[in-house]
Amino acid sequence: MASQTATALFPNQVAAVLDLRAQLLMGPAQYINYAVLTDAMIWDKLVAAETEAERLLKTFFSAVQIIPDTALQSEIDALEAAETRYRTIGAFDYDPAMFEGERWGLMRLPYKPVLQVQSVTIAFPAPFLMNYVVPFEWIRIDRKYGDMQLVPTTAAQVSPVGAFALVAMGGAVTYPQAVGVRYTCGLINADGQVATSFAEHWDDLVDLVKRMAIGKIMKMAYLPASASISADGLSQSNSFNYQAWQDQISVDLFGPKGSNGGLYTSIHGINSQALG
Predict the structure, then answer these.
(1) Which domain of life is it from (predicted)?
(2) According to DSSP H, which parts of 181-261 are helical?
C-alpha cells in the first residue's frame, strides 16, 4: 500500500480519491463490490497508475534532479533530506568524433524534457589538470528532445585547462566516461493546478492516469469474462471488457496504431530516425 500522501499529479489525496469514486459510479462500479472498496485501495491504485504512466511516457511529472552516478554520498543525502526527487546517470564518453561535421559535441540526455542544465564537467586523465567546467556560453540544448551540444565560443575562459579542452575538442584522443552532466528535467504544472500564461498544461494526462487507476481496480477484482443476473424470470448479462479499456488508454498514450501521436509525442516530439 502506498505510504505517500501526495503525488505530482494528485497533491490533494482526499480530493483525488473522492473524484475517482465519482468516476467509478458512472459505470465501472456495477461490476465490482463497491462497498468494500476502501479509500486506501483507491489511493494505492492512483499512485501505482501514476508511476506506470511515468515509466511508459519515459518522463517525470515533476522536476527531478539528474546527477552523475559518481556523486558524493553527501550530495545524495542532502537531496534525500530535502525530499528532492533525483536520478543518477553515467558520464558520457568523450570522443573526437563528437566534433566532426555538424555534431558540435552532440550528446542525447537520457531523461527529458530538460528544464535546466546546472553544469557540464569534463574530467581529463592528466593528473595535473583539474576537471574542466564547460562555460554556460558553450551549451546549446533542445529541451524537448534532450539534445545537448557544446559550441566553443570566445567567451571561454583562458587557462591551461581551457586551452587543453579546446585542443581535445579539436580531435586529439578519446576519454571514457569523461563528461559529467547535472541537470533538471520533467514536466511542470503536470497536475494542471497552476495557471500561468507561459507553461504547458497536461490536464489530459491527469484524466488518463485516473482511467489507468480504474483499470487497475477492475483488474484487482479478477472479473470474469461475463456475468449474468436472473430475477423474477428476467435475466441480464454484463461484462467489463478490460482489454478494450486498456486499448483506449494505449491510444491516448501513443496515438492510434501506425500513427506518431498521443501524449508521448506531445512530450517528446515526433520520433524519427535518420538513415545512412
Answers:
(1) Bacteria
(2) 203-220, 242-254
